[in-house]
Design goal:
It is built from 21 helices and 24 strands. By secondary structure, the protein is α/β, with parallel strands linked by helices. The radius of gyration is 27 Å and the shape is globular. Bound molecules: flavin-adenine dinucleotide (FAD) and iron/sulfur cluster (SF4) (3 copies).
Amino acid sequence: MSAVPAPRDLIVNPTGEAVAYSDDPRDVGWVVKNIPCQSACPAATNIPAYIRAIAEGRHGDAYEINRQANVLPGVLGRICSRQCEKACRHGWPGNGEPVAICNLKRSASDLKNSGHRITEELFAPTGKRIAIVGAGPAGVAAAHDLSVLGHDVTLFERESQPGGMLRYGIPAFRLPRDILEIELHNALRLGVELRVGEGVGKNTSFPVARLLRDYDAVLMSAGCMAPLPLPLNGEWKNRDPADTCPDVEHGLPFLMALHRDEKKTVRRRVAVVGAGFSALDCARVAARLGAQEVVIHIRTAEEYIPVTKEEIFEAKREGIRIRGLRTPVGIELDADGRLTGVRFVQNRLGGWREGGRRLAIPIPGSEFFEPCDTLLIAIGQKTVNDFLDVPVELDRWQNVRIGENGMTSVRGLFAAGDYVTGPTTVIEAIGRGRQGAAQIDAWLMGETRRRRLVRIESVAEPLRERAFDFIGRQEMPTAVPNERLRSRTLEVDLGLPAQPCQEESKRCYLCNLKYQIDVDRCIYCRACIEVAPRACIKLVESVDIEADGSCGKLREAKEWNKVGAIWIDNNECIRCGACFKVCPVKCISITRNEFVEVDQP
Ligand SMILES: Cc1cc2nc3c(=O)[nH]c(=O)nc-3n(C[C@H](O)[C@H](O)[C@H](O)COP(=O)(O)OP(=O)(O)OC[C@H]3O[C@@H](n4cnc5c(N)ncnc54)[C@H](O)[C@@H]3O)c2cc1C
Ligand code: SF4
Ligand code: SF4
Ligand code: SF4
């Protein structure tokens, strides 16, 4: 007997659609394992669904599908760290380059029509009051979701405008402020009370203890606001040169001041130390402030730094140089206390670190000097907790510790975003902000009011063609480097126009489509195997489906008399539709399997 399951009987509803909703772990597991981009996205964006909408020219729908997972699609379409693209099946060996998922997200936002209306299904008012501290992406996402769920939300922000690092970290040439403004406004428009210029904690009008008294729940999403000091040797050991030398600054306060419209200058030769988004941004800003030479110094090698390769490429086009395998050990000042350069030690690559990075090991006796006139230190950030006026349990990294329900050690005090995890990315902060909102809702209401199910829907015909596999990845058009450097706000990425956007969308394999053969109806004519573009259809003795939906041991049949079933390997399948079209007895079915959030009755 074969263990291959028969395709599921779908219920035909009154509108004629054949659909089923399932919380069976095998269906949930199938979606998790077979849609790698969505599983890699910290906000679980339904990527194949929005890419399909783009292919059909429905940009507004694509925008809405995105917005269900993250409230800022136009923002994310520009600056997302793109974990999904690293996981995309199209980028697997032999399949070419990943789909330009993020550029498509941006295009959906750019190309939706100007009268596009946002759709939102609101819950009835609950009468519960929630305070959120910090209006970065985590706080904004949580405020949005909690207001949709019917709660009264007040969002406290210390700066004069909301957005967190989207506004005070990321420069406008990567994220235009009008886009940010519109999407923040839309996220907070459902009655969220925004109190800007209002810090929370010790020595303010709003100590946390007061918020805990006045509100039913409090969410801390205060980000990671303290720059890490540069560990140096010799006379600089345990001293921060930014405290004494006017030419040395930490990157985060440098960018924040610039984005508060304070005047910032750099001298002729700028050295940036660090390897993340902040370091790249400091360097690119310095180039726009008129520096003649900008060099980013990194400890490891360029291929291991945690920014997108597009960022590095564009920075280099702006004349910025990246010098790898060096660690600063000291700085040199002249008699007037002005910076003359940095002393480095040369590194060699060591073993692997967590997150796919490589260790950098200093080579003894390899010290050397690099002249520069401005040094920007951007080696990372940590959370600040000294503003807390209630005793909250911290972990060994001094981040607040939260339980499985998202709550800190203080009853009613929740936390989310970089404030809990340490520095991450915008999409991770949004994912965690949304999760925090759901946890607060469950705690306040005593039940889970939204559930995630798998929606399984019959699809009448293949949505892809084999010819789509020959379309190359569409490149993002960008502004001319010389023009960029004359402006601090000219956007670098110009957006994919409609035609290349549609071409790119066709490249997606639509991994949410599940191809299945009904073994009881198959006549084993092998026509599907003959037309298949790859080893995606297999004759097997049997195949077991594990409890989590994954395919267990596959025993391919070498002889005819051993054939127990015919099996489509959805891992290999590129949804070309050839088998479906050729099958003489129409025993191949296609279903669209995707997560949906449904309200509990
Ligand atoms: C320069 C720079 C560039 C970056 N580029 C990218 C990028 O391209 N892509 C990407 O994915 N990620 C990027 N990141 C990382 C990303 O911005 C963060 O991971 C993300 O913003 C974290 O969101 P958050 O809401 O947790 O915190 P934040 O965005 O840091 O927001 C925290 C907010 O809390 C407020 N706050 C703090 N304390 C208080 C208080 N006591 N009372 C009231 N308000 C308070 C702060 O003013 C701030 O507005 C970048 C970060 C930096 C610094
Ligand atoms: S091919 Fe499409 S659905 Fe599949 S992983 Fe890539 S973007 Fe996602
Ligand atoms: S649709 Fe059919 S023929 Fe095409 S890749 Fe998938 S299993 Fe193979
Ligand atoms: S073409 Fe159809 S009938 Fe023939 S082997 Fe394939 S699934 Fe079976």
